[in-house]
Amino acid sequence: MSCVMKHYKMVNTGLLILTNPASVKNLLPIIKTHVHNTLYIQYCPEKNFNPGKLSFLSSLWKTPSHFQMIANIYTLAAKFLTKVDVRVLLSCIKQNCTIIDTKRPIELVIFDRTCSQDDAKKFIDNCLSNTTKPCQFIVINANNDQSVIRENDIDDDDEKIYNSVVLGGTFDRLHNGHKIMLTKAVFHSSNKVTVGVTDINMITDKILHELIEPCEQRINAVKDFLEDINSSLSYDVVSISDMYGPTKEDPTMEMIVVSEETKRGGIKINELRSQKGLNSLDIKVIKLVEDTHHNENEEMKISSSNARIRLLGTRLKEPDIRGKPLIPYIIGLTGGIASGKSSVAEKLQSLGAGVVHCDKLAHAIYEPGQPCFDRVVKHFGKEILTDNGQINRKALGNIVFADENQLDKLNQTVWPAVLDAAMNEVKKLQAQGLNIIVMEAAVLIQAKWQHVCHEIWTCIIPHDEAVRRVMVRNNLSANEAEQRMKVQPSNMEQVNEATVVLSTLWSHEVTLCQVQKAWDLLNEFLKKHQ
A single Pfam family, by name (predicted)? Predict the structure, then answer.
């Protein structure tokens, strides 16, 4: 395989003119070094390819029979271009056209077979509607790859075209598995594609659902993709609050696209439509795509769940450090009860951070002789004291976790004293030469201590797992554990404040990898801002 270079830098958006789909597995690893964000792919069978002749695009195949070939392209892209948004264009398949139209301007055209400079320039000038000026080109000559897609290799058993096609899903962080399903719908539709996108009511049982993109953002991503790969159809992308969505009432729908996992849902939709006197939908089942990069705690298929798991330990947003000295750099480490904050703090300490345990400081200020001791006893009465004059924290907890007003009174008494003690500890650690200091505080969000931190790191685990841990750790009943959960901010509230999200749901090794990733990215960030 030879490569003819006509440009000298990485580009954001490229277009591959693909004449031999069998060469994709060889092309993509090379393209990875040239295209950073988006790769469009236009399939032009070799027998039709003539970049100097503007009409060649209008002679492309126009049936669903090549769907599997495009599905294979997306599958290979998931393996070789994990961080590039790959989009196989379908407009010139669905309608006669001589122009390739894309939403994003093409900076680089990639030909997979020999093409003269004059023909490449003519193609760029006359066949592309949206390019940068200048638009570069590169030839990756794959002629020595003898494997080709033959006409009799194409599945022609699935040629049926429908007026209206429907599909549904979460479509979080649109990935190549989603793109295969959406492409299937486009292939089989002559007029309209309806997509149901699950709203918040349908996502709470999903892993790390707190990191799922807002419904409107997911809807816009689906619309953008569909309109980009084929602008000739009508698209109706709507939020749905149950598995049926518009299928339970739309008589015009004729076909539904489902995955192997959701096939049963398609059957149930038809059962409901039958009860309502509506036509049954033809069901097209899409195979799941293997995730060749999955780790031990991830799914074997390409999934949004894996994408969310891989966000753990990354920087989800830039912290606001305006007006704050960078030494010491204070990380507010928070999270719900039993979410693993202490174990994360311990790992960060082993990496070189100073750690302030605010919960331990809170325990200290309850001791006899401390100002808070007298104020707490005065308000709650001597019945909260043990026989030796100490505050019985369990007895106090039973009072405040059962009465929100009592909890507020305790917090207003204790929080200011804890923050003062914490900032004194920060000064001591800085004096010891520690420039990154972790302030571990379960109440950080409620107490509104964000202002003393440069950024917030949040630990989350599923609600049921948190209840189980609290019951075991504190020897509480399920109801008692639930009471304690209710008085803390939700995982979603914690995540909304976070620069970094971590989860101790899996093994010690998995958590350590998250913390190491977060630590490394933090140090890269600090180097840039020194």
Answer: CTP_transf_like
